[in-house]
Amino acid sequence: MLRLLRPLRYLRPFVFPALLLAALEWYARTSGQGSDAVAPPSLAARALMGALLSTGEFSILQATAFTLGSAGLGLLLGLLSGVGLGVVLGLSRRAADMSFLSVEVLRPIPSVALIPLAMLVFGFGFRMEISIVAFATFWPLLLLTQAAVQQVEPRLLEVATALNLSPLARTTKIVLPAVLPRLFVALRLGVAIALVVAVTVEIAANPSGMGYALMIAQQSLAPELMLAWLFWIGLVGYALNSAALGLQRWVAQRMGAAPAGAAP
Where along the chain do its domains lie? Predict the structure, then answer.
């Protein structure tokens, strides 16, 4: 009996979403019938299938590719600059003290507040969105990397000093391997921020991507298409987070297997 019930545990995460969708379906077909803001999930699912099969200007694949491309390149820029500067500030107390005021003044600026400035510099399009995503992801990556480097075991740094390693060699051979698990936590956070900011920029200003398609659905008074796009954005975010988590586990397994495989 227990063996028969064990597969049911995999269905537990879907219980609450199923109940929520059922409640929304009931409300949309009763009290909310004819609403411009609420649509039955069944109609949203049909609209999502139509969007997946569409090849027009606002096809779901083109919009998704644009948003993911902007978010990915912006995250890459934020990752390289944030991790690089975070390592420097984590290793150098003097540099951290000198940059403290600048970091604390610039970090609280909302990334969307830079949209007018980015539009003046880059205009509408790809580069404007990338710049804002890079700004948004830079700060959490910087702070998390700095904190991780500051917590590196001092004995490891003493070994690097005893071996007369250059700053580059000390960073690549000692510091980065020691903080790698925490860097993956920062990467997962950066992935989520990049997607959120990219969609927000498209909703507010950039006439491309999933955010703009969502606005078009809203302006067309098509609540079923709005819900379809919202659900699709959620699926994309879930897939990105799962991919980052899978990469983290793969790297952790490789690092854990390395010592065992090193022995002759």
Answer: 59-250
**CA dihedral (251, 253, 259, 262) positive or negative:** negative
Residues shown for the chain: 264
Tokens of 130: 């990338």
Whole-number Å distance between alpha carbons of 49 and 43: 10
Say if residue 46's pLDDT is above 90. no
Return the higher-pLDDT residue of 163 and 195: 195
- Distances in Å between the alpha carbon of 179 and those of 56, 76, 134, 188, 249? 46, 18, 22, 15, 15
Q: Is 34 helix (H, G, I), strand (E, B) or coil?
A: coil
Token digits for 62?
A: 């083109």
Task: Please state the CATH superfamily assignment of the domain spanning residues 59-250 in this structure.
Answer: MetI-like (1.10.3720.10)
Burial of 259 (0-12, 13-18, 19+ CB in 10 A): exposed
Query: pLDDT tens digits, residue range 47-78?
Result: 888 777 776 656 788 889 999 999 999 999 99
For 99-122, letters b (16+ CB in 10 Å) and e give beeebeeeeeeebbebbeebeeee
Cα separation, 208 vs 67, in Å, equals 8
- Read off the tokens for 150: 């500051």
Which amino acid does the sequence have at 129?
Answer: E
